[in-house]
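Sequence only, no structure available. Ideas?
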Amino acid sequence: MSETLQKDESLILPAIPVKRYFTIGEVSDLCGVKAHVLRYWEQEFSQLKPVKRRGNRRYYQHHEVLLIRRIRELLYEQGFTINGARNQLGGQSSIEVKTVTPELVLSGEDVAQLRAELIDIQQLLRL
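Reply:
I predicted one. Tokens follow.
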């Protein structure tokens, strides 16, 4: 009986905060998966490509956190193998990104913040 309770408790994941990037430690906590597993999944799932900064530090975006939760669900809850999960995901990564982003109405302040973030991303890509 206690095993059932533990499994049910592990299904409840914390809400994903509204922010641009998440460290591997944050993603580990948000998805209930250890960091070394996340690094392994990067090799196995081509859709999972976190931004890497100096020192090879990984920074995941919101859509990647959702993808990791989906991978976790397929592997741990539905019992798929890595190959089976890969097949289930198929080409869904681009679809997930489109459905995650709601329509936005941006104020001048929002545009300025977005511009600053785009400049940061541009600098990251130059590293």
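The longest strand covers residues 57-61.
Hope that gets you unstuck.
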